[in-house]
Amino acid sequence: MKIAIAIILLALAILVGPVVWQFAHFDPKAVPTSGLPWQIEVLPGGEAKVFDLIPGRSTLAEARTRFGAEMQLAIVAEPNEAGNVEGYYEQATAGFVAGKLILTADLPGDIIEGMRERAPKTEYMQSTTRKATLAEADKAAALAAPIRAMAFVPSAQLDEAVILERFGQPAERIRVNDHVEHLLYPAKGLDVVLDTKGKELLQYVAPARFDALRAPLKALESSPKP
User: Fold this and answer.
1) Tens digits of residue pLDDT in 108-135
2) What single DSSP character describes residue 107?
3) Whole-model pTM?
4) Separation of alpha carbons 45 and 210, rounded Å
5) Is-contact 201 193, C-beta < 8 A?
6) Is-contact 87 149, C-beta < 8 A?
7) pLDDT (tens digit, 9 = 90+) per residue, 36-76?
């Protein structure tokens, strides 16, 4: 049994090792000049460009051109909420980094509500979160909407040392519980979520809208812990 476990661990090390190595060590000459999660360009007007997209300006259609036609469009909503129109990729590639990608469309609540009413199918994703499939007639409007936010979950596990090496020191850290900490980079419109019990998450928004992302985190930080 010990031999079998050792063989399994060795196989996992061989499979995972190269991916982690790519994050921690790379040859600058072999890396693309744009498209990687940490390659965020702050534009003269204060906007930020990542994945060759500009949150707040680029559309879901542009994201589909960038990442492929496999984008799944749906309205994702918590109970008693109108929800958000999201474009989802089970597997997206950003340079040499793969992961899940979620793009949130910037649409008014009444437009989203109308799309929900016309949705041909609604199902539960997990617990009480609902996913409504968009009607064909609504897909064009969804794709034409600007991207309000992007969330990227890398397949490779990232630790704090790798995050700091790639993104630099954050302007602020907010710990919301005993295992989740947010590293905030407001000038880049970036929130890196470190979770010792789960996967890391990279959230991108337009820098001008960063306060809207930060405010609820500060509220959680200051709220009494059980």
Assistant:
1) 999 999 999 999 999 988 778 999 999 9
2) -
3) 0.83
4) 15
5) yes
6) no
7) 999 999 999 999 999 999 999 999 999 999 999 999 999 99
In the block, residue with structure tokens 């063989």:
7
Task: Strands of the chain (E only): list them.
Answer: 41-42, 48-49, 72-77, 84-94, 97-105, 121-126, 129-133, 147-154, 172-175, 180-185, 190-195, 201-205
Q: What CA–CA distance (Å, rounded) separates 86 from 88?
A: 6
| 3-class DSSP state of 219 | helix
Nearest to residue 50, comparing CAs of 60, 64, 40? 40
Helix axes 160-167, 2-24, angle to 10 degrees: 20
| Residue 5, pLDDT above cutoff 60 | no
Going across the sheet that includes 180-185, the strands are 121-126, 129-133, 72-77, 84-94, 97-105, 147-154, 201-205, 190-195, 180-185, 172-175
Tokens of 14: 């061989």
